[in-house]
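Thread: "does anyone have the structure for this chain?"

Original post by V.I.:
We have the sequence but no experimental structure in hand. Need at least a predicted one for the grant figures.
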Amino acid sequence: MANDWATFGADLHLELRGTRLRAGLMDALREAVRSGRLEAGTRLPSSRSLAADLGMARNTVADAYAELVAEGWLTARQGSGTRVARRTAPRTPAPSAAQPPPAGRSRGRGRPAPPAHNLNSGTPDLASFPRADWLKAYRRALTDAPNEAFGYGDPRGRPELRGALAEYLARARGVYARPERIVICAGFVHGLMLIGQVLRARGVRDVAVESYGLDLHDGLLRRAGLGTPALGFDERGTRVEELAGLDGCGAVLMTAAHQYPLGGALPPDRRAAVVDWARASGGLVLEDDYDGEFRYDRQPVGALQGLDPERVVYLGTASKSLAPGLRLAWMVLPRDLAVEVAEAKGAVDWSSSAPDQLAFAEFLRSGAYDRHVRAMRLRYRRRRDQLVAAVAAHSPETRVSGIAAGLHAVLALPPGTEQATLRAAAWRGLAVQGVNQFRRPTVPSTLDGLVVGYATPPDSGWQGALQALCGVLP
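Reply from O.Q.:
Generated one for you, tokens below.
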């Protein structure tokens, strides 16, 4: 037999404190039904009596009842009042062999363990984010921020950040950067989307890409309506001389300072050749300088953009030096292209948070960014050295390359063993990538290897990840 409304009114008084009346009443009733305090079929007081009990207008209660009836929590019939609706309890699916067991329990013999160690490339050590220094910069930036900084602003980004970046990039990366030519974007992908949109509007048909790289970038260009022919690759890097034979190619996307993922730097003669091609053809070089700050065994390789600022688009990011969650990146553009990209960005959104931009500007100007990069460069170099030593001790035949710079290394594998090694890694709970994961579909498979992101694990997980890696090497 259905229960009548009893003592729930006292509970409602408590739950409604400090809330908007109707919303608070609806939330309280929903929670009472969920928790079982109001069983299905329970009759609620009339809107008049409940309004008197709660000290609110009758219409407020009546409107709340009506909305809950519409949502299916209550039912209302002439002559029988308002009652709690009968709701079918959600069914709990029976355990199935196809469902993974809870974390920490055995998975049986037919399924590899979930990853316990992460050596995927592309991410810095997130535990090392300089929280205290960033908070200090954020506070100072907010204190000094003009009121207009909290408006919509310039789609190119905050002038404070563009000015700080122009100074830093000229000093650290050899980039010719004037503030009016810089556009702030929410990550490299956002910048590439804008560039692709502008190039397509200009009538560009194709943007050449390297033989090995991220499918995500290739896909973004294709979705912009651009073809993506792949340039050949040899022991000296990308074969830029092939650009001359690509009719309709208006740009080339490159990681010239540190090829991703194979790790080499484009030789000086090929750097000059790709800029000469851009000058002669009227094309553009899109330079992805994703980890330009991290060099270990040599002097830093300057950005390609310094050779010809009117033919090279420089794209940089804080995703590797600080953290991808900041969503801060930048483009340094030729004079005519800067206007078009800013217009394309402004027509869609402004993306990057103005307070974050101001904080990053302060972080750069105060020297905190340089200190952080120096500290992380030492930490990552130690990890790289430990990786090289561990591989040499466990698998002397394995060649490690791409180690002069960046946050990852490439471990060469015997031909035909890459997939078996990746399966062995999965069984050991190790997340790691194979070289052929980055190969363009039109490029023949000639390399087997692992791309090891030694920056990714926190300090507490580094040794375990290194041991797991050595355990799967041939």
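V.I.: this helps a lot. The first helix runs from residue 8 to 15.
O.Q.: and The longest strand covers residues 249-254.
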